[in-house]
Amino acid sequence: MVRTVGSHGPKTMEAIRKAGLKLIHEHGYEAMTLRQLASEVGVQVGSLYNHISTKQDLLFDLIKAHMDDLLEELDIRLAGIDHPVDRLKSFIAFHVSYHILRKREVFIGYSELRSLDPNHYEEIVGLRRQYERRLTDILDRGQAQGLFQVGDTAVAGYGILAMLTGVCTWFRPSGRLSREQVAEIYCDMVLRGLVPDGQLPADSPLR
Amino acid sequence: MVRTVGSHGPKTMEAIRKAGLKLIHEHGYEAMTLRQLASEVGVQVGSLYNHISTKQDLLFDLIKAHMDDLLEELDIRLAGIDHPVDRLKSFIAFHVSYHILRKREVFIGYSELRSLDPNHYEEIVGLRRQYERRLTDILDRGQAQGLFQVGDTAVAGYGILAMLTGVCTWFRPSGRLSREQVAEIYCDMVLRGLVPDGQLPADSPLR
Amino acid sequence: MVRTVGSHGPKTMEAIRKAGLKLIHEHGYEAMTLRQLASEVGVQVGSLYNHISTKQDLLFDLIKAHMDDLLEELDIRLAGIDHPVDRLKSFIAFHVSYHILRKREVFIGYSELRSLDPNHYEEIVGLRRQYERRLTDILDRGQAQGLFQVGDTAVAGYGILAMLTGVCTWFRPSGRLSREQVAEIYCDMVLRGLVPDGQLPADSPLR
Amino acid sequence: MVRTVGSHGPKTMEAIRKAGLKLIHEHGYEAMTLRQLASEVGVQVGSLYNHISTKQDLLFDLIKAHMDDLLEELDIRLAGIDHPVDRLKSFIAFHVSYHILRKREVFIGYSELRSLDPNHYEEIVGLRRQYERRLTDILDRGQAQGLFQVGDTAVAGYGILAMLTGVCTWFRPSGRLSREQVAEIYCDMVLRGLVPDGQLPADSPLR
DNA sequence: CATGAATGAGGCTTCATTCAT
DNA sequence: GATGAATGAAGCCTCATTCAT
Which architecture characterizes domain C56-192 according to CATH? Predict the structure, then answer.
């Protein structure tokens, strides 16, 4: 009954969040056990409940915090930028950068949505829609000004987001490219596509 | 794990695969229980083991079959097409179409990779790489022929795949757009981007 | 993973009920653990759930079965008896006898009422009221015919039931008195009281 | 376990006893948790241990205090009364009155006996026997003086106690009858029974 | 004295899997 | 092939209790 010295006090909650992020990212929410979590934190299982009310609540907390940050930081980044092309480029740079830096939160925020309680689910999906709207607003304004030529701004929005978000699955900090380079490549792809005008094959239906 | 047609009429194994697909898609592999599965099939839990050897094996089976189909059907589609742009367009059309029609297999094939045993995981990842290679080969050849202008064909490949695959998350058969329309929009985005040349703002660093 | 031979098949449920009766009587429902129960039955804890759906449901089952038996057997015993005094005497004899023979069910039926879920609680209390009504009906009819002289038949009913039921707490089969003797003593007490008329002390306010 | 009045105003120990009484009565000792208790008192769980040494000790305290009061007040009430009938009537009046007024202590004193540690159990049972002896002494003396005609004074004692104690389960202060009326009804039942002599049916075996 | 965080044991329940019938 | 009952491990969560602050 001697107490092993573990992480005490207000630091424990932070350790739980960090370990939870790691383990959910590694194994998934359903597959992560509180035993694993406690052991990662260096604490007994029961002690977790001094800080979280439920495994489900921990998941929600992590995702909610991520979504709040995402929205807040995006708005800071876009503040004062007006031209749709510039806004779009800023959006892309921000999104790529954030998704590289907070890979695990992002991944969980997508893949564990279905593990959320209905109420929690609705709340998060609402926030996600707000974020998507930031992009589609840009696309709509650019389209209206004749700057963009897109078959469907909604589809384009989904496509761009999916493409950018994919960065999480392959980017390695130690790899060949820097965050900035990746952002630039994506910018180019989004804005100009693979085939600059005038180089389409003569028999292409795209012409 | 294959079962000959028994006297009970509808093939139980097929029912198990179908129900497994549905339940894993809905709840995830970890969250799906064999009791749910048995109940969906209309059979007792123990009976499942006359058809599958293991929950894990069922997952592998489903994903493996999906990957085999994916590769096989892609190769049929690309057969005889030579020009990189045309190959790319065919790839896009095929990918979009397949991902819309077999949404659940596709979803599971991505999201439950981490639930696979190490050996199974390696096998599936190998197949996935073959599929990705089909795309990057196209990009590399197009780039070599001066048809494409991409900062990095590997990044572009990942980006395109992610964008196209995203169709699974938003496409509704009852929605505004047909599969063909969606494929065309994506084609345009990939090949020409949002901003056709000559319309970039004068102060854009893209120029 | 070798299976220890335990109680198999349909006998297990009976063993669970018997062991449950014993353990709840000994320790109380809340204090009884399913580990104890399983060990008493000679089975693993999880196996209990092949037969019961819930600890709570086992409790309800036991109490419900007891109440059903109680009512059914009482009605058999009273059938064909008309005179209120005879009916009362039969009721007493039955109640004492039943409560001696099925001490544990009776005890649980009283003391664990509060552990029942609200719905279960209501159902059992309804049955109990039916049983009490059997007695108060007898008292009411006797009172109406001038056979009984009771200040309040409802109070008398509660009093008689409490007195008779108390037999559970002290009767030992190996004791000095037989079931029949106990029933007779209680009959006398109920019908004639301690002090036969004419022997009250002269200064008693009872006169 | 006694606590001097601290600076926090209302005596916490008294609040704990009161809340304990309420919660044990409502849910039972096993089912009551110290968290509930602390919350009812308006204090954190850990703080309880500044006042009690153990959950078990709190139970014992409550029951012991009740038994001590019961005996003490009974002796005061019976002091100076000699005639067995009068003593019996006083006993009945006292018992009914006390059990109505201190319903919860009484209930706990019976129903939670089995939750007591063996040592505590023995001590309480000893006190309970003293109390019962007060009644059986009266009955024995009355029987010896030819005032009572009882088949068995021990059985009669148990029966009377059970009947009287039952008042706890049905009496409502807001009900039709006052404490005094109830006591009188019970007195009548105990002393004269339901059927005053001379009114037994001609064919009754009681004659 | 009160608090908050820790412990370790143990609660009920569910799981994948096995196997005799 | 299907069933029902068994296993043993493990799931999340709660408990009484301790103790540094």
Answer: Orthogonal Bundle (1.10)
